Amino acid sequence: MRTRPLKVALLGCGVVGSEVARIMTTHAEDLAARIGAPVELAGVAVRRPGRVREGIAPELVTTDAAALAARGDIDVAVEVIGGIEPARVLITTAFEHGASVVTANKALLAEDGSALHEAAEKHGVDLYYEASVAAAIPLVRPLRESLAGDKVNRVLGIVNGTTNFILDRMESTGAGYTEALDEATALGYAEADPTADVEGFDAAAKAAILAGIAFHTRVRLDDVHREGLTEVSAADIASARRMGCTVKLLAICERAADGRSVTARVHPAMIPLSHPLASVREAYNAVFVEAEAAGRLMFYGPGAGGAPTASAVVGDLVAACRNRLNGSTGPGESAYAQLPVSPMGEVVTRYHISLDVADKPGVLAQCATVFAEHGVSIDTVRQQGKDSPEDGASLVVVTHRAPDAALSATVEALRGLDTVRGVASIMRVEGE
Ligand code: HSE
């Protein structure tokens, strides 16, 4: 074993960074044996220097992250600050000064992954980011390496723990969205500002990363259709239950049937209770990968939290250190396929539509005509009258698969009918 240690700069020492430091310290001997050289924490960049950080020598702590990234003797910089800046400039600085980078930064990778890959390649160093998607669950490496010989057609999963916790509570207690969010906040599952999670930005960034790797194509956050879960009501959950379904916030990346384009989207959807994703409870994540030769693979586990995220970070650190010793680099960006990313309107899916309608002759036929005019085939219809005919009726329609644009146009046309008093809920149906 080499005795001269590999030097690691830790950029950020919050929930994840402090766990990375802890694992590096407590498992130092094992890590050295696995890598073939000791690994030394050479500096830790923090925002608040006064805080006591257990296990980290005070002389390693600095507030000058830029100087640490530019030191020139760093083998691997671990970026766990998050967000776009200063993370982007720090990573670029580390590359320019010869360091490989391990990051958990999904937002940056989804916005600028290609530029980061290019910079890493230019400087002959590594960029690893397993922790950016679903924390401890191995997804990036299986897609990049284990499935490199296969053809992935679909990636479908729950990649945000906060929203899964909220939906799980709505499902199990009958609570509304706000009540469930309050509980998630009180238990520490939701951030003080939950926007990135509940509006689907976090999941969309992960979808962009997964789609890019799965389809060997550049996919950015802006390419991902995104709908959060703020509009999901207790009534939607109850409707789903009546259909033998539950509601999940799904990230879905698909290759078109003709193989010439791909799509990536995040939105709430009904899935049958019999689908394995329906039993993913609380803040857990789970992802299905469907590949031509491998078939259906499911990855499941904790998708957030300091220790699970640090597990993935340190795994990448080991890989980057091994490469460093061998004088090699791991796989770079694979975007050779350059498939176009189609808009949501071209996605073929199913809708569950719940309408409040007048309860009088011809209404059902009138609504059915609107579906037919838009080329949308109806799978099932369920009508339930209210206490008196003047109160109208509830009409629940589930469609067969159709382009999303046709389904949206159908709903718009239904809204325009005098006999349709309101559209109570619209939700896509997936996983069948
Ligand atoms: N906030 C994310 C979640 C974890 O709730 O899953 C970090 O991506």
From TrEMBL:
It comes from the Bacteria. Its EC number is 1.1.1.3. Its cofactor is a metal cation. It holds the Pfam family NAD_binding_3. GO terms for biological process: methionine biosynthetic process; threonine biosynthetic process. The keyword Metal-binding applies. One of its GO terms (molecular function) is NADP binding. NADP(+) binds at residues 11-18. Pathway: Amino-acid biosynthesis; L-threonine biosynthesis; L-threonine from L-aspartate: step 3/5; Amino-acid biosynthesis; L-methionine biosynthesis via de novo pathway; L-homoserine from L-aspartate: step 3/3. Belongs to the homoserine dehydrogenase family. This is Homoserine dehydrogenase. It comes from Streptomyces carminius. The lineage of its organism: Bacteria, Bacillati, Actinomycetota, Actinomycetes, Kitasatosporales.
